[in-house]
Amino acid sequence: MVNDTDILFEYLKNLMYNPKEAHLDLAELGEDFQHLGQGLLYFGECINEQRDFANALAKGNLSLEPPSRENELAAPLKALQASLRHITWQSQQVAKGDYGQKINFMGEFAEAFNTMIQQLDHRQKELVAKIEESQRKTAALEQNNKLLEAMGAGLPDWIIVVNNKTKEYMHYNQSALLAMDSDKIVELEVEKLILDYLAQENPNYHNKQLSIVNSRTGKRYLEINTYNIQWDEEKATTFVFSDVSKELAEKEQLENYAYFDELTRLDNRHRGMMIYQQWLAERREFCLCFIDLDNLKYINDTFGHNEGDYYIITAAKLLSGLASKYSEVLVCRLGGDEFMLLIDEKDPTLIETQLINLRKKLGSKTRNKSSKYPFSLSFGIVKIKKNEKRDASELLRLADERMYLYKRANKNMK
């Protein structure tokens, strides 16, 4: 015969290990155990409420209504939910450019988060300073040079004065003379530009840019300022040529820093997320893929970062090869061992086949054949429809979850 303590013990056991089977009928208990049974039922309700709340947090659902105040068991989880909500808000502020956010709790995570924000703030300030410096240089080049300064001895600018009527050169400075004599291609290009300009019925005196292909030094960029003047009582035009090749190269380099990953030369996270948002706004139908390189930390720690960089670069080249198979592909490195693909493809199974084949190719690329951890990758694919209802963050999270499911299912064993 089953006694009261057996009934209560069975209920507690099921409550802990098999909650769906946990059931307690107070009518089966004797009078002395009725009050205890009622208490255990309330305890069970608290346990189940806490379990449901914990499962929701584990899945990233921070909007679930927390348990009531009476459920003291859930108090730590409610505090955790509040902390995660605050961190989420802070991360959103950082994404908007507010680098003043700091976390003063959660130990090592807070230290890592605050260090990341400081680095982002420092890098942004460096980039802004470089861009502002480049803009100042460009603005200086755009200002009309005063004629007296332009004709000063030793200036690097080329100064050429041309008679509007006869098209004869009335004056040119030493820099222009040396440039014309040292490169006939430059001389011919400059002459053609001057004649085309003066052939206009009412030429506009403004800045314009000319690119000249030089057989000796490659492509050069010249900025031209024109001035309508009187020279020896004749109407003339002064052409001031400034070589801005260096400035444009610096500007291009800054743009590379802003949009491209230095190691792989792929688009970086900023560029990738910008294109991702653009495709969503355009209601495109495409596939979003998250890629993660397996065991990169182990390879870095065991074989060195040179081998790890080779791993990353090799994977980047293989991923870039997908561009030839589809009408439009964006491959970007999110950072570390993570990549993101945006592919103009409606059938995710085709992409899955391509990535599985790519994974096999990557496995054969390791330079250390004795390694127990060959190069490999894990991926998660999400198909995005034209009438997609899920928001950008939810789609990214889903791709990330699928990637980690794939990683766990195909994890290399030591």
From TrEMBL:
Enzyme class: transferase
Family annotation (InterPro entries): Biofilm_reg_signaling, GGDEF_dom, HAMP_dom, Nucleotide_cyclase, Rev_trsase/Diguanyl_cyclase
Coiled-coil residues: 117-151
Signal peptide boundaries: none
A Pfam family the protein falls into: GGDEF
Coiled coil as UniProt keyword: yes
Domain of life where this protein originates: Bacteria
Residue ranges of every copy of the GGDEF domain listed in the record: 284-414
MF-aspect GO terms: diguanylate cyclase activity
Ranges where the HAMP domain occurs: 78-125
Enzyme Commission designation: 2.7.7.65
Keyword Lyase: no
Alphabetic keyword roster: Coiled coil, Nucleotidyltransferase, Transferase
Name recorded for this polypeptide: Diguanylate cyclase
Lineage: Bacteria, Bacillati, Bacillota, Clostridia, Lachnospirales
